What we know:
The chain is an alpha/beta fold. It contains 5 helices and 8 strands. Strands 1, 2, 3, 4, 5, 6, 7 and 8 form an 8-stranded mixed beta sheet that branches.
Amino acid sequence: MLSRPEGFRRVTQVLAERGHAHAPLWLEVSARTCAEAADALQVQVGQIAKSVIFRRRADEIAVLVITSGDKRVDEKKVAAQVGAIGRADADFVKARTGFSIGGVSPVGHAQPPLVLVDRELFRFDEIWAAAGHPNGVFRLAPDDLVALTGAPVADVVVST
């Protein structure tokens, strides 16, 4: 474990402290995108819990939207729940979360973000989230995600 990157180790520790049943896995291939993660895990793209970070304009707090990998976040729906938001660049994401884009975990952030969990994740019994690095993932149920983050379940995606 010592050879693993700091973000992966931090997420592993948080999950262990919270009694999560599934330790993170280290993939031999990068899972920077939802499609890459789904291919590596042999699951549907929708089962990948995609972490999207926005910057709340009022106070510069990071807003983490965890959505199903086959959906697109509707920024207007998010803003209606948390206030005006803007895009977050790679430097903002790294500074606020401690993770690089492509490895943002739902837990273990440098500064606690405001979190929303997409209700579309509940289409699946099992989902997979990033574990602090593009090669790290962990398995959980949508209810576990809510319990781990304390976040509300919301309608945050573009309607199809």
